[in-house]
Amino acid sequence: LIGSARFQVAARSADGFDEQLARRAGAQPGVMDAAFVLREPAVIQGPKGRQLIQLIGVTPSLVGLRATATRNLGSGASLLAGGIGLPAALAEATGAQSGEWLTLLTNGDAHRVRLRAVLGSQTVGSVAYSPIAIALLPAAQALAEKPGRVTNVLIKPQPGADALVKRELERVTGDRADVLPADNELRLLANAAKPTSQSTMLFAAISAMVGFLLALNAMLLTAPERRRFIYELRMQGFRPGQVIVVLGSQALLLGMVASAVGVVLGELLSRSLFHQIPSYLTFAFPVDAHQIVHPTTVVLAIACGVLATLLASLPPVLDLRSNRPVDAVVHETGEVGQSITRRTTLALSAASGVMIVAVSAIVLLAPAFTVIAGVFLALAVLCLIPGFFAVVLWALTPISERMQMLGLAVIELKATATRSVALAGVAALAVYGSVAIQGARADLNRGLDEAITQYIGTADVWVSTGENVFTTDSFRAGNALAAIARAPGVASVRAYQGSLLDVGSRRLWIRGRPPGDNAVLQSSQLLHGGYGQASRLIRQGGWVAVSGGFAEERHLHVGGAFVLPTPSGQAPLRVAAITTNAGWPSGAITLNASDYRYYWQSSDPAALEINLKEGVNPAAGRRAVAVALGPRPGLAVQTRQEREAQFRANARQALRSLGQISTLLLVAAALAIAFALSATLWQRRAQLAALKTQGFDYLQLWRALLYESTIVLAVGCADGLALGIYGHALANRWMKLTTGFPAPFALGWPQMLLTIALVAGIALTVVSLPGLSAAQVPPPVSFQE
Fold it and tell me: What's the chain's Rg over C-alpha atoms?
């Protein structure tokens, strides 16, 4: 919408400022074009449902800014006169048709409005996907019940007049509005989305790294076969350079094909699972769900897949060293090509210990490097497996001497050390990634749930505009408080006030709690300061609680003073407590409602809090409040439990992508184990046939296979669980320090046990049926090798 505008005059509240001020701003020297805008949160209701939107009122002069969303609208007057225009995606979602009448809910009231135009991408560009309704300014002012008010003035200066225009705008607006860059909304959005983006980045980075190592491990399963292949090529006279070319071309082709399949599946997932924008952002920003997959993402994904296959081809190439005999692979202990030396095992164990120490040092000194630390921790998981595997087999050896099939399983595991360690590595990575991610996500959910319970728990019944769970949409109360106070079963009613306030790069959540609330602060969200004293100071007035990110940015501490820009001017305030962000990424400021009314110059509530008399059923109390409120279709009456459920659903939706990532990681890892085990069982058919020639029947072999798989999975799961818990602690600490979300650490044993059960269950199921089939291989197959 901003087009060629360079500056904007922005109101500090949703009430905006007088249109006369906007006209004076547009008439200043050096101003080439000025467009007035009114933004109002609203709900549009059509035949197929309702959507939370922003109503945007514009003047025809907006076309002069030549923005992508308006350059094809012409004057706009004939297109939108007497009604609104809806983007095509929103019209489809609500079932709205051009020319039909719709219901627009603003300010707690319902307004009938005609849909004049459905705006497609050919007309308004990417705005066709945005949750907005566009109207001419007079119509928008009438619908918002704000005659003569605007919230923004977009300014295009004359060439070279930027400094003059900015100076004049600041003089005209004084201390009641902000003069900002025209694209300041993008900075605010980036800041609000940053914590969730960072959390998603952490989860995605862990998943990508685990996926890369899973691919690497899967390729390592073929290392014994490749070593034997190298031996055969060298015996046939191939030179080392030729062998490297053959192996490299195989790995390159396999990596390209597999990565291409992965890219196609990833594109499908991005459109089916990850295309929705968190609804907690849509109430504050007109963001859309238009999905774009950047070419660099595709290139990076393919490059990682190819790199995994190329790196996995390196260990067999070590047999080409000049000091390595051509037939060295033949003389190794155990199955040909499967040996892991004691020296290698000790070196990998030492490397694992060094990486764990390094990870601890990195995250203590520089929490920003937690993602890199997670990569090293995953490598430590893999490096620890050979040593752990050797210890487990050593411990099982005395027991295996008394159990024939367990003894056979231990012998086979020692003989196929490389393959067994690789399989254990797949299981370990699956458990590590899932435990780390699921644990951090569970901490976030638990912290948000506690914050929600305390935030909503101050009243038995809530009256609000309903759709906005952050309770920042004000409405005209009229005589509602007095009418509700007289309703049967009502003990008390209080006006809660709240809004959004742009301060620097943050769109803060302002919460004006009534002094009569049983709690003006959420004790679970307190980071610094005493709860009792902070509550007393806030009720007293002039004191506030601020989020940790905001306090750190401005070097604030408990007891410190700062100035907050408000609609009435600069408000001198002091810090009573420092809290988490309470679930809103940009941070929150909590003050009492009396201070809010004074500095925001508004008595309109964002919600009404009603406490019921003792013994009154919440449902009955809600009905009594609804009757007293009268016909206000733009307002919702909810019990505390209903409001909590709505808030929790919103929070879960915001964290849905994190849950989807963790679930996909677990499923992908479990499938990786299943395919790896299936491949190894097929490779061992000749060996199983040879054991049959020694007198073993298929049930004995099947039991031995189950023992082998159980040992391998136990080693992998135990290793992954131990370091997964550590990874969970690191991820939790990083999220609290970086994002400001409430995320108290706790060991979620049920979730961890479920993860292990799922991984082991899938793997053992795969072993049970195909393993039984493999164990029934005819003995003559052994002579085909």
Answer: 33
